[in-house]
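Onboarding guide, step 5: your first structure request.
Type a short instruction followed by the sequence, for example:

Predict the 3D structure of this protein.
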Amino acid sequence: MNAPAPPGRSASAPAVDAALDDAVAPSTAHRDAGPPRSASNAPHNAPRQRPLSIGPLRAFEAVARRLSFSAAAQELFLTQPAVSRQIRSLEEELGAPLFQRGTRHVELTADGLQLQHALLAVLERLDGTVRQIRQARGRRVVNVTTFASFASLWLIPRLEAFQREHPDTDIRVSAHDQIVDLEDSEIDIALRYNVPKGMPSSAQRMFGEVLTPVAGPWMVARAAAGEAPPLQTASDLRLHTLAEEDDQRPTGLYLSWRRWLATQGHPELQPRRWMYLNFTYQQIQAAVSGQAIALARLPLVVESLQRGELIEPFGHTGRIDSPTAYWLLLSRQGRARPEVVEFAQWISEQAAITRQAIGETDPPSATVPQTANDDRSR
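The system replies with structure tokens like these:
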């Protein structure tokens, strides 16, 4: 006769739940076939029989992967003491230490390595099942990762048009400069910025980069009327404030005023003052408000130029190319979902419009890219 199911659990538990119990529950080899011992005569080192809670296991997996309690806490949106308590609770449940804790480092013990090996496959199955249930029961959601300025200046202004055509699909945009591993996350699509050699072969090139000085119409009008310093040639920039992106990454060199000034024959020119900003969209805001002249990424501001919100004081002669470009990548799980492929195709169509607007004459293939196995770009 089968034993009754523990309280709160069905006798026909799902396969994922059973796999979790098998992977992390103590071995049954030491279980006594006879009646259970009482608490008074049970040996102190008797193995515990109850399954482990998922919370401490999640904390363990994060610490084991990052080898850092603080990094794991940030990832899990918990405090470091909370993560430490969960790890201590797990170690007490198992009766074995899982980490060797040093002053500035954390290492897995042999037991920790064994648990990590068993846990990875179980959590992957569990997360996959959860995603399938959510997708089957809820609205269709496409998860997109990109950097903040691209989201603010290019993607988000266009989303309303997609939503009108596809009201049953929700778009979740994660905008930050942290690179997400597409094969180890719930992200479906990545929109990146990098040089070609830094992208996997599966990436689709959306459009290239063109840089051009831009200013607000109010500043340009005052300069033309003689109410502000002139703004007709590159040498006039010594009389103005220049907004510079404070970016120390290699791709940041292509976005700098120093590179643009060198191409115009003024490598040593110093402006009246510098305004250092973290993001491209902040530079554009400074230009629109008349506080500075920005070196803009043309693909991100071409609509603003068309609407007259920004002006190129030196016209097309002030434009320079860059070896960097914008890229579209699909994750393996995203490619298997029709709504993701549909959104990726729409992105490709929007990219074609941008290519035409910036005068790019060599469009890439319009096919949706294959899955990406590597991504080191922005």
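Each response can be followed by summary notes, for example: The first helix runs from residue 15 to 24.
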